[in-house]
């Protein structure tokens, strides 16, 4: 856990960070977000003492950072700097080995570690270890920056706009990779961004800053559902109800679906259709289509009367609700069956269920009226 207690940083008259008290929980990723100049980089650099606070105290675990030798301190903290910052005259593997070599690791050990990290970040060591930064794409260079920060397996990682310098598609891929990585590594991470979508996607917690002060710290859900200040409300945007949906998984919002096996009797079908107008049809649990009352009345044999659906008609339980909603709208339906990765029908998601969560997050409409 990292704690800031009443921390300020002043440059003459200019206040970069004012009286900030904050905690970043262990094993979690906290995103610092806010407009340019609000003090994000300053906050980050005070944690690893690249910047000395004007006042206040900072702790990592039980250690006060000012009591630790700065060199020792930084070895326990991986740092990914704004705009990548690879050393241009060093190869990829040399870049990754900077801290291990400073720590006096034997050559073989730091080389092995560099190769292991290249594999972890999806760059084949045989091909990239000896490359120079200028031979890499932006996305590859970003990955190497992350690998370098992870070299000595530090418990804490500070990342300043680590995915800032790449195109949106690459950025999304890097974010996904990074989420997967963090799922395994469980580092204590403070990451800076000024992209609210990135903050919502990656953060266990989001810390919204403005002119040197914290406006709100909370889970993405809390910040989106309940912006504490006018600034936060404006910053997260008027589509925050929709943004919230991108944090929710379909499985969290689905409810049980009425289903009928293809081999069921006409009597069972009648009974099911007496209760509701349509039911889903499965074959050994796998979604194959749906059956509606009218079609069945016309031809009371399930196999003939049911309507087949293509496999991608359904929502996947692991999709986010925003994706599912978009699928619903593009197919012009008010509900979707939900399937597991195996294709098994596991529930249904409907507009009513989605609206129930979005209205909680929409006091803006009332305010505007
Ligand atoms: N060395 C310095 N001397 C004077 N003022 C500084 C110095 N470093 C930063 N500042 C000021 O402190 C404030 C916070 O800067 P900081 O770099 O932390 O912002 P930031 O939130 O990281 O912005 P960005 O999103 O543009 O990277 C800014 O107003 C900046 O101009
Ligand atoms: Mg900055």
List the helices and strands and how they pair.
Layout: E1 2-11, E2 14-24, E3 29-33, H1 40-47, E4 55-60, E5 63-64, H2 70-75, E6 77-80, H3 92-96, H4 98-102, H5 107-120, H6 125-128, H7 138-150, E7 156-160, H8 168-185, E8 188-193, H9 196-202, E9 205-210, E10 213-218, H10 220-225, H11 230-236, H12 240-245, H13 250-253, E11 259-261, H14 266-275, E12 278-283, E13 286-292, H15 293-298, H16 302-305, E14 307-308, E15 315-316, H17 321-331, E16 335-339, E17 345-350, H18 351-360, H19 363-368
Parallel strand pairs: 3-8, 3-9, 6-7, 7-8, 11-12, 15-16
Antiparallel strand pairs: 1-2, 1-4, 4-5, 9-10, 12-13, 13-14, 16-17
Helix pairs in contact: 5-7
Bound molecules: adenosine-5'-triphosphate and magnesium ion.
């Amino acid at each position: 856990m990292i704690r800031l207690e009443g921390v300020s940083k002043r440059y003459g008259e200019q206040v970069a960070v004012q009286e900030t008290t904050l905690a970043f929980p262990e094993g979690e990723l906290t995103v610092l977000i806010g407009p340019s100049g609000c003090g994000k980089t300053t906050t980050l650099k005070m944690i690893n003492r690249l910047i000395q606070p004007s006042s206040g105290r900072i702790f990592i675990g039980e250690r006060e950072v000012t009591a630790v030798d700065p060199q020792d301190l930084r070895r326990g903290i991986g740092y990914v700097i704004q705009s990548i910052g690879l050393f241009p005259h060093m190869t990829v593997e040399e870049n990754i080995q900077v801290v291990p070599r400073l720590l006096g690791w034997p050559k073989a050990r730091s080389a092995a570690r560099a190769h292991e990290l290249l594999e972890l970040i999806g760059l084949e060591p045989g091909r990239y270890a000896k490359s120079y930064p200028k031979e890499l794409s932006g996305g590859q260079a970003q990955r190497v920056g992350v690998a370098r920060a992870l070299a000595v397996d530090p418990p804490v990682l500070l990342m300043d706009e680590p995915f800032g310098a790449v195109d949106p598609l690459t950025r999304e891929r890097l974010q996904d990779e990074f989420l997967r990585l963090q799922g395994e590594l469980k580092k204590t991470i403070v990451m800076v961004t000024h992209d609210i979508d990135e903050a919502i996607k990656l953060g266990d917690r989001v810390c919204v800053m403005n002119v040197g002060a914290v406006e709100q710290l909370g889970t993405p859900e809390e910040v989106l559902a309940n912006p504490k200040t006018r600034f936060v409300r404006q910053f997260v945007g008027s589509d925050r109800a929709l943004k919230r949906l991108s944090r929710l998984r379909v499985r969290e919002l689905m409810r049980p679906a009425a289903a009928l096996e293809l081999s069921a009797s006409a009597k069972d079908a009648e009974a099911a259709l007496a209760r509701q107008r349509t039911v889903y049809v499965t074959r050994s649990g796998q979604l194959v289509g749906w059956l509606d009352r009218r079609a069945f009345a016309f031809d009371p044999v399930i196999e003939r009367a049911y309507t087949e659906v293509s496999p991608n008609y359904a929502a996947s339980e692991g999709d986010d609700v925003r994706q599912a909603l978009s699928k619903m709208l593009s197919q012009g339906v008010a509900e979707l069956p939900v399937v597991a990765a195996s294709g098994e029908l596991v529930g249904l998601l409907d507009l009513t269920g989605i609206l129930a969560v979005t209205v909680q997050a929409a006091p803006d409409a009332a305010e505007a009226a």
